[in-house]
């Protein structure tokens, strides 16, 4: 086998190996993007649920934290001694 044939063979092998690596890399990237998208959706749902719970708790706490004012009663003038 001549050196030219060997170089050509190595070049073709290297090209095939590089292409296989690129295909693997692109497929891996697609999987990572899909996983990332799913994780992002999960976190958004989790944050939305937590905000809803926080708002519900806040509404409940505000109602119980509000001072309970009683309407002042007018003095009973009918029974007062003058």
Short descriptors:
82 residues, 0% strand, mainly alpha, single chain
End-to-end Cα distance:
133 Å
Number of E-state strands: 0
Contiguous low-pLDDT stretches (5 residues minimum) are none
- Helix tally equals 1
Order of helices and strands: H
Whole-number mean pLDDT: 84
Proportion of β residues? under 5%
Q: Name the overall outline.
A: rod-shaped
Helical residue percent band: over 70%
Q: Which structural class do the helices and strands define?
A: mainly alpha
Biggest pleated-sheet summary: none
The radius of gyration is 38 Å
What does this 3D model show about the protein?
The protein is an all-alpha fold and 82 residues long. Helices cover 77% and strands 0% of the residues. The chain is built from 1 helix and no strands. The longest helix is centred in the middle third of the chain and has 63 residues, at 3-65. The N and C termini lie far apart (133 Å).
